[in-house]
Specification:
The model has no long low-confidence stretch (mean pLDDT about 85). It contains five helices and six strands, in the order H-H-E-H-H-E-E-E-E-E-H. One of its GO terms (molecular function) is transcription cis-regulatory region binding. Its cofactor is Zn(2+).
């Protein structure tokens, strides 16, 4: 699977130093299955490119979501996280202890349509969030 940086280059995106740093962060996070917040991206990007601005990070994240290259994931804590796993249908596990988010394969069960067939509702997407404790947090409880 091509990295985000490779996909953006193939799409003909102008790879400014700022975009290159941000996409490289997601190339690494994809291999580690990390879901970064905008503040995470800003903090890590500043370490590499000190003059990158908060506005550039937020604008670039918005552009990547609009282009379908990142998923904006909200798990109920009012903080958006960005998921580079856009090519595999999946749901998320959220640890109630540490807040870590993990990808899990989507179940092949279609969601019900409100009102049945007569309701005329067409489901276009579904998000499932499982909550529990990760192995590390569950081990701390023992």
């Amino acid at each position: 699977m091509p990295t985000l940086t490779e996909r953006l280059t193939t799409r003909g995106w102008r790879m400014t130093p700022q975009r290159r740093v941000i996409s490289a962060l997601f190339d690494v996070s994809a291999s580690q299955h990390v879901h970064l917040t905008a503040d995470d991206v800003l903090e890590q990007a500043v370490a590499v490119l000190p003059d990158i601005s908060r506005a550039t990070v937020y604008n670039t994240l918005g552009e990547l979501v609009d282009a379908g290259e990142l998923l904006a994931v909200s798990v109920g804590d009012r903080i958006t996280r960005y998921d580079p796993n856009v090519h595999t249908e999946h749901h998320h596990l959220v640890c109630t202890g540490c807040g870590a988010i993990f990808d899990v394969p989507a179940l092949p069960v279609p969601p019900p349509s409100p009102g049945g067939e007569a309701g005329g509702f067409v489901v276009e997407a579904a998000e499932v969030i499982y909550r529990g404790r990760c192995a590390r947090c569950a081990g701390q409880d023992a």
